[in-house]
């Protein structure tokens, strides 16, 4: 019989990897909250129409990467899709829950799994995890970014048209549907042609120009290092004005750790008021790959404070009573459940890196004491059982 494995592009997170996950998740939560963002959780799936409308019909995600359950597979329901990103769901929830009425400017963050049907490779998974923030309803007025986009679109088309026969098949199609995406093509011919495309910043309208200049000035003044990339394209139609990515050299082809940008039209497009917004998301699996390559000391897995060993199996119920009492008092404690020898029980305690071992034998039962060994210093003490259990101290 064929062995059933974990689905392609997904993986199990085993107990020894959990400390690193917790460390990364706790760190992003702490940092986001320090910046005044509050956590929001939305469903794992949404109506497909949300992503079609927000991300755009010509995007790779909507065209070929969504896990969609059509109407026939979800009787009586509209088509639903496992969330491939979280900006659209957050805007949906912001509007549906009337958040702009409560407080127009909302700073929200999330951390959870997403799903994209992609060709798996290092740092590219079909299920992956993002931690991201969305600052919604910023008071910046809605700028007509499309005007300058139109001008730049025309310029790009004029530049690329004579090269059309040399562009790859994908880009020939993109030329009509969404010419900006040609700038992002990774095939050598297209890269060579793209090298000399006219820079976008000459085509900005006055409002976008001022916005861009102010942003650059702020980055410079705060000493933030950045580079300007005239080829950067992000695969979502909702962006307006600024887009950005943070990359890490250890990641290979999929080198983006984080991506984001401004989406001043999306709230209105999803039926809300005309309010600007900006956000970004960090890929946690890629963050962990980068951390591993940077040789950063990983957090230790949790270990029990106390391991209770028995000289004879007949004392196991006593050991069970002790670990239960300690656990109820908030102390992590464990014991052997498989009838192992005393030596082997100590070996288990060692493997678990337990801080203390309590041993119970005939002697201790008679004297109503416990033998407590500090596994780091090696010192042994005898304590009165009932006193220790009513007020454990180490
Ligand atoms: P994105 O660039 O598609 O943006 O994803 C953000 C980050 O998620 C990437 O930089 C990468 O680290 C990680 N990521 C994306 N796809 C995969 C994958 N298949 N496997 C592993 N990691 C992946 C967004 O999703 C936007 N919603 C970000 C945003 C928020 N824009 C405005 N607000």
CATH homologous superfamily assignment of the largest domain: Bira Bifunctional Protein, Domain 2
Spatially, the strands of the biggest sheet line up as 1-5-6-9-8-7
Identify the CATH class of the largest domain. Answer: Alpha Beta
N-to-C terminal Cα separation, in Å? 53 Å
Q: Report the structural category.
A: alpha+beta
Radius of gyration: 29 Å
CATH fold title of the largest domain:
BirA Bifunctional Protein, domain 2
CATH architecture of the largest domain: 2-Layer Sandwich
What's the count of strands? Answer: 14
Would you list the SSEs in sequence order as H and E?
HEEHHEEHHEEHHHHEEHEHEHEHEHEEH
Choose one word for the global shape: elongated
Report helical residue fraction.
25-40%
Mean pLDDT: 92
Task: Supply the number of helical segments.
Answer: 15
The largest pleated sheet is described as: 6 strands, mixed
Compact description:
With 394 residues, the protein is of the alpha+beta class. It is 36% helix and 19% strand.
Task: Describe the protein in words.
There is one protein chain. Strand 10, helix 12 (316-328) and strand 11 form a beta-alpha-beta unit. Mean pLDDT is 92; it is low at 141-146. This protein folds into two domains: 15-144 and 205-293, Bira Bifunctional Protein, Domain 2 (BirA Bifunctional Protein, domain 2); 306-390, Anticodon-binding domain (Rossmann fold, 3-Layer(aba) Sandwich), CATH 3.40.50. It contains 15 helices and 14 strands. With 394 residues, the chain is an alpha+beta fold. The strands form three sheets. Strands 1-5-6-9-8-7 form a six-stranded mixed sheet, sandwiched between helices. Strands 11-10-12-13-14 form a five-stranded mixed sheet, sandwiched between helices. A three-stranded antiparallel sheet has the order 2-4-3. The radius of gyration is 29 Å and the shape is elongated. Histidyl-adenosine monophosphate is lined by residues 85-87, 116, 118, 123-125, 128, 130, 132, 134, 256-261, 279-281, 283, 285-286.
